[in-house]
Structures are given as structure tokens and as C-alpha cells.
Design brief:
The complex is a heterodimer of chains A (342) and B (367). Chain A has 342 residues and is an alpha/beta fold. Chain A is 40% helix and 15% strand. The longest helix of chain A has 24 residues. Chain B contains 16 helices and no strands. The chains are: A alpha/beta (342), B mainly alpha (367). Chains A and B meet through β2, β4 and α4 of A and α5, α10 and α15 of B.
């Protein structure tokens, strides 16, 4: 009897010790469990915007947003190719995330208070800082958006773009005539044909239009005013904190790698580096992957298979004619800043 | 020109030395000064358009090469070079590139099934078996996962085969649904009748877009956590439900056009309701409504392109995505022109076939 009691006591003590220790390490994450069970990440992407998410002629997806999905797959599953994409429209995207159709949403979505608070989703960072601007013909001699009083302005309907435009002109007590056209190509055609004096959309879009859609880029200028803040970033469902952490730190790892000078080409040779920050990054010390329930090689896999943020930007965004601008690292005067991995 | 038909009748008495064509032209295009003036103006406009079209679409067009060559001609010629580059994406979208023979073969099986069922001598008990076999083969090809074929999830399906799947299943399953709804609406049982009326009026009262939105945006929120129904399936169900309501009204038109005597004769023979419906009523009623039915089918075939608003890559959306590529941006009209030809071939074939079948089935009525 005594032995039985002592065994029981030992067992209780062991459980009492083990449970909190385990709980401290890993919060339950139904999303990560589901991803590991099914073997791929289900990613909600755009599918129609070059540079962010677009399948090529072979049906292979690429883009800055798509790279975030691939990086998450590399971190969780160790293989960046284990992603399935769901092409989502602007109207569908939040429902698809809320209903569990996709694990994460990376579809050039602006982080706003109302979306973060009331839609049941959590933004995990900003992978592209954008803002709304204006393009005008150089021959018009306009140097600032403040000089656009009385102008006719082409704009796409149904997005915050239209609202920002009205807000800006009202705040500056200027008048304008909107020409609302649904499709981007038709907007560009209308602007080039002179139906409107200016076309407004996100600055990244304007830069790419100026680079590849107008006959002579030098004849057009993008005005210096950026009239809205459009921080675009990935989001996940609320209520799965560990999954949110994984997505957040996956993107931070891409920034951190750029800051440390780690690229997909050199990371193998950096495995033996004595720099403590790099040792932590490649998983040689610290055990940071295990803290999130991942392999300690999580960040190594991201950089080896997807590359750092600069590589992703170079591959996807630069060909559109959009420079790094505010999306440079903080060390180079940009806004991209990640909390340290330690 | 407007009274062409009457003129043909009168024009046959023209001078015998002239050929039939000249007679026809004289009688129809140049019968009065007003007709002559109208004909000349229209001929001039037609010629001008054709001249421009041949210049744009043939002479100045770029048939092969990179997008930069297309940009060099600055819009005076069409850019058909986008097709050699993008045709596989337009037809098969994001289906794995090396496995695209599978959707290609699936399309061929669909064509075979259409052609096979179009011939009246195949309308026998073997037809359902052929369809089931064909659809099974398509399912195996598209999904894979057995016989050494790699599994391909539905979200990678796209292009022409998606359009064919949506419209074939839409038409095939909406048809029986429509017959039941039409019979239900004419039923004497109040519960069934009101149910059918409410369904038809509700569905017809909203556009297809709103049904697709319901299926893709609202429906998933009603499902318990963790259960998701595939996007394609949801869209397919919405399309079937929508087409069913419209077809039901067409079928009801046929039912109402039948003389009352047919119903009474069936009753007098002692046939049960279902026997009478199957053997007497429906064969006659459906024959009457072939033109409006095909009209609905053609409409439905084109309506499947609306799935682009829920992010499915049907052939039109695949074409749109193909020209989102910055290299090819701005060549939308060229690509849309090509896709519209594909739509036209299908719709024209349906229309021609319905004319023929109508003639064959209504032979008894011709005197």
C-alpha cells in the first residue's frame, strides 16, 4: 500500500511539475497543428497584382506577399514550396480568413484600426509601406498636389483611394472633379488621352505605371505629396497567439537577415560565424525556434529558401520600377525596423 | 433593305439575263433611291471598318515575339504575340505546368461528351453510362492522386476546363431541378406550390453576383469552425440554383402552352401523375421550349465568367490575370478578343445545334 501511495504521489508531483513547464513553453496553436497535419500552408493572396501576388505563364505564384507565405511555410514545415494559394478578391479576403479557409492573409491589405479591432483578425507587421499619390503630365507644370485646384482626377471606385482623395481636397479647401473608372488599364488610358489631368492611386502603383505603361516616362511626374498612409501587411485570425507570433517573427527574420547581411547565397557559409547575433539567427544558440514550437533552423530555412527582405524586394518589386524608398531598412533611413531576435 | 423578304418575292421576275446574285442585289439593296443611298453609306462604313480591322488584326499585327515588339508598334497593330506566350495560362491557369496535359485531355473528353450526346442515335440507355464514365475520367484526370497521377487541389484548377466544368454541371443539374420546380409550381398541393414559388421568385429576384457573394462570403460564416466547403463547389451550387430558377420558368411556359386536352387525355388513359408527366406532358412541353431553353443555356455559359468576382480563375479571369503581368499590361483588348472568339464558338455551336434539333423534333408538325 505504501508503495502504491508513494508511486501515486510521485506521479502527481511529476505531472504538477511537467504541466506548467510545458504550458510556459508552448501555448496551444490549432492553426500550426492543422498545418503540420495537412502538410501545407493555405495562403490567401491577391492573384492579380504584379509584384505582390500573381501567377506567371507557368502558373507559378510570385510576389512580395507570396514570399511571406513561402517564408512561413519554410519556418513551420521546413519547405517553402509547401504552400497552396487561394486567390481572393478585396471583398472576400476577410471572410476567407475568418472562416478558416486560409491560414493567413497576405493580400496587400492596409492595416487600419477598424480592421485590426473589429474584424476578428490580427495584423502581424508591415511588409510594404505605401501611400496614395498623384501622377500628372510634366507639361502641365504642376509641382505640388496643392496646385490641383479645379483639376479632373481619375480614380478607381470602391476602395479607400476614392475616400482619401475627397478627404484631402476637402481638408485643403480645393475643388476637383472625379472621373471614376473601374479598371486600372482604362484609368491609365483615360489619363493618357487627357480625359483627366491627374490619376491617383498608391505611389507604388503610380511608379510602376510610370515605368512601364506610359510612352515616355520622363513626360510624367509623381507629385511629392503622399496623402494617405497605407501600411500593407499580413494578418491572421485572432485567438491563435502562437500562430500570430510565428507569422510576425517570420517576416522579422527576413528583415533581421538583411540587417545582418545574411542572404540565401551566403547563409551556409555563415553557419560557422562567431558573431553571436548570427549564431542566434541560424539556430546555433538560443533555441528561439523551440520557443515558438518550431525547428531551431526555422530562420535558416527562411533565408536559405526564400531569401531576406532585400532579395525578395529586388526580385519582385524593383522590376516594376519601384525603388526601395521608405521600405529601406531603418539603418538606411527607411521605416523597416524589426525587434531583435534574442 | 428593311423589306428584303418581300422584295425577294417580287424580285424573281427580273430580267432573265442577269444572274441570281445580281437580281438579289438589285432587289434588296438598290430598289429605290433611299435604299441605294443607305446601302452605299453602309457599304462605305463596312469597308472602312474592314480596312481598319485587317490593318490592325493582320497587316500590322505582331504574331510572335516579346512584349517590347508589340509596344513598338504603338497600338496600330494587334499584339497576337501575347498568345504564344500566355495561351497555356489562359487555357489552364495555375494548373501545374508539367501536368497540363490532364486538363487538356479533360477538355477533349468534354468535347467528346458534347458531340456524342448531340447525335440523336446515341439517345438511349447507354448515354448516362457514357456520361458517368466520361465524368469519372475527368475527375480522375483533374484531381489525380491515383494511377500515378499527382494530386492537384481544386484551387489550382482554372482556365477553359473550369468554365466547362461550371457550365456543364450548371446546365446538367439545373435542368432536372428546373423541371421539378416547374411541376411544383403548377402543383395543386399548396405547400409544394408555395415552396417552389418562393424559391423561384427569391432566386430570380437577385442577380447572380449576389448569389455568388452569398456562397463565397456569407455561407462560410454559418459553418461550424474548422469546416470549410470548397470555393469551387460553393460557386457551382450557386450557379445550379440560379440557373434552375430561370429554367423552371421556361419549362413552366412549355407546360402551360400544352392544350388542356393533353392533360385530360392522359388522365382518361388512366395514367398516374408521374406516368402522364413523363410520357405525355414533358416530351411535348420541353419540345416547345427548346429556343428559350437554349437561350438560358447560352446565358448561363457566359454567366460563369462572373466567378471572377470570387477569385476563381475561369477562362476570362485567367486572360485578365495573364495581362496583369507588367510586361504585357495594356494588351487586354487583344487577349479579350481571342477569348471572345472561344466564347463565340461555344455559344454559336449551341445555337446552331438547337436550331437543328428543333427542326428534327418538330418534324411531325411540318405539313
Amino acid at each position: 500500500m505504501k508503495t502504491l501511495a508513494s508511486i501515486f504521489a510521485t506521479a502527481v508531483a511529476a505531472v504538477a511539475l511537467a504541466v506548467p513547464a510545458h504550458a510556459q513553453q508552448l501555448a496551444p496553436s490549432p492553426t500550426i497543428d492543422a498545418i503540420k497535419a495537412r502538410g501545407f500552408v493555405q495562403c490567401g493572396a491577391n492573384g492579380t497584382v504584379a509584384g505582390f501576388g500573381l501567377p506567371n505563364a507557368q502558373g507559378v505564384w510570385s510576389g512580395l506577399d507570396v514570399d511571406v507565405c513561402r517564408a512561413v511555410a519554410a519556418a513551420v514545415l521546413g519547405d517553402a514550396s509547401k504552400v497552396r494559394y487561394t486567390a481572393l478578391t478585396a471583398q472576400q479576403r476577410f471572410t476567407a480568413l475568418q472562416s478558416g479557409e486560409v491560414d493567413l492573409l497576405v493580400r496587400n491589405t492596409t492595416w487600419t484600426l477598424s480592421r485590426d479591432v473589429s474584424l476578428g483578425l490580427t495584423f502581424t507587421g508591415v511588409n510594404f509601406y505605401d501611400g496614395q499619390g498623384f501622377i500628372v503630365k510634366k507639361s502641365a507644370g504642376i509641382k505640388s498636389a496643392k496646385e490641383l485646384d479645379g483639376a479632373t482626377i481619375c480614380v478607381q471606385p470602391g476602395t479607400t483611394t476614392e475616400l482619401n482623395l475627397a478627404d484631402y481636397f476637402r481638408a485643403n479647401k480645393l475643388k476637383f472633379t472625379p472621373v471614376v473608372i473601374e479598371r486600372l488599364e482604362e484609368n491609365i488610358a483615360a489619363y493618357l488621352a487627357g480625359r483627366c489631368d491627374s490619376f491617383t492611386t498608391d505611389v507604388s502603383g503610380l511608379a510602376s505605371i510610370r515605368a512601364s505603361n506610359v510612352p515616355v516616362p520622363a513626360d510624367h511626374v509623381i507629385l511629392p505629396e503622399v496623402i494617405s498612409k497605407e501600411p500593407l501587411g499580413p494578418s491572421v485570425r485572432k485567438g491563435d497567439q502562437r500562430w500570430a507570433d510565428v507569422v510576425r517573427w517570420t517576416f522579422y527574420a527576413m528583415l533581421d537577415a538583411e540587417e545582418l547581411g545574411l542572404t540565401s547565397a551566403n547563409i551556409d557559409s555563415m553557419l560557422s560565424s562567431t558573431n553571436p547575433a548570427i549564431q542566434r539567427f541560424v539556430g546555433a544558440t538560443g533555441g528561439f525556434g523551440a520557443m515558438m514550437g518550431l525547428d531551431n533552423k526555422w530562420s535558416y530555412n527562411i533565408i536559405k529558401q526564400v531569401g531576406n527582405y532585400a532579395e525578395s524586394y529586388q526580385r519582385n518589386i524593383v522590376p516594376l520600377g519601384i525603388e526601395r524608398g521608405v521600405n529601406r531598412l531603418w539603418t538606411q533611413g527607411g521605416l523597416m525596423y524589426n525587434p531583435p531576435i534574442r | 433593305m428593311a423589306n428584303g423578304h418581300a422584295a425577294v418575292m417580287g424580285g424573281n421576275a427580273g430580267r432573265p439575263t442577269e444572274s441570281k446574285a445580281v437580281q438579289w442585289i438589285r432587289a434588296n439593296l438598290f430598289s429605290s433611291w433611299w435604299n441605294t443611298a443607305l446601302s452605299l453609306v453602309l457599304l462605305y462604313l463596312l469597308g472602312k471598318f474592314l480596312f481598319w480591322f485587317v490593318g490592325w488584326g493582320v497587316t500590322n499585327a505582331i504574331w510572335y515575339g516579346a512584349a517590347t515588339e508589340c509596344r513598338a508598334v504603338k497600338g496600330i497593330g494587334a499584339c497576337w504575340a501575347v498568345f504564344p506566350e500566355k495561351w497555356r495560362f489562359i487555357l489552364f491557369a495555375t494548373y501545374p505546368y508539367e501536368d497540363q496535359w490532364r486538363p487538356a485531355l479533360s477538355c477533349l473528353i468534354f468535347f467528346f461528351l458534347y458531340a456524342y450526346s448531340a447525335l440523336r442515335r446515341n439517345w438511349n440507355t447507354r448515354l448516362p453510362a457514357v456520361w458517368i464514365g466520361g465524368l469519372l475520367a475527368i475527375a480522375v484526370l483533374m484531381w489525380g492522386g491515383i494511377l500515378g497521377l499527382a494530386f492537384v487541389p481544386q484551387e489550382r484548377w482554372g482556365g477553359l476546363v473550369l468554365t466547362l466544368i461550371l457550365s456543364t454541371f450548371g446546365i446538367a443539374l439545373a435542368f432536372p431541378l428546373a423541371i421539378l420546380l416547374a411541376l411544383g409550381r403548377r402543383s395543386h398541393m399548396p405547400a409544394i406550390k408555395s415552396l417552389c414559388v418562393v424559391y423561384i421568385e427569391l432566386i430570380r429576384g437577385v442577380p447572380l453576383i449576389s448569389l455568388l457573394f452569398m456562397a463565397s462570403v456569407m455561407f462560410p460564416l454559418f459553418l461550424p469552425e474548422g469546416i470549410t466547403i470548397d470555393k469551387l463547389l460553393r460557386a457551382q451550387i450557386a450557379i445550379i440554383g440560379f440557373a434552375g430558377a430561370y429554367l423552371a420558368e421556361v419549362v413552366r411556359g412549355g407546360l402551360q402552352a400544352l392544350p388542356k386536352g393533353q392533360y385530360e387525355a392522359a388522365d382518361a388513359l388512366g395514367l398516374s401523375y408521374w406516368q402522364a408527366t413523363r410520357m405525355i406532358i414533358l416530351p411535348q412541353a420541353l419540345r416547345l421550349v427548346i429556343p428559350p431553353m437554349v437561350n438560358t443555356f447560352i446565358g448561363l455559359f457566359k454567366d460563369t465568367s462572373l466567378v471572377l468576382i470570387i477569385g476563381l480563375l475561369d477562362i476570362l479571369n485567367a486572360a485578365k490575370t495573364a495581362v496583369s503581368d507588367p510586361a504585357w499590361r495594356g494588351f487586354g483588348p487583344d487577349v479579350y478578343f481571342g477569348v471572345s472568339l472561344i466564347y463565340f464558338v461555344f455559344c454559336f455551336a449551341m445555337s446552331k445545334y438547337s436550331q437543328r434539333i428543333e427542326g428534327e423534333l418538330n418534324k411531325s408538325k411540318h405539313r
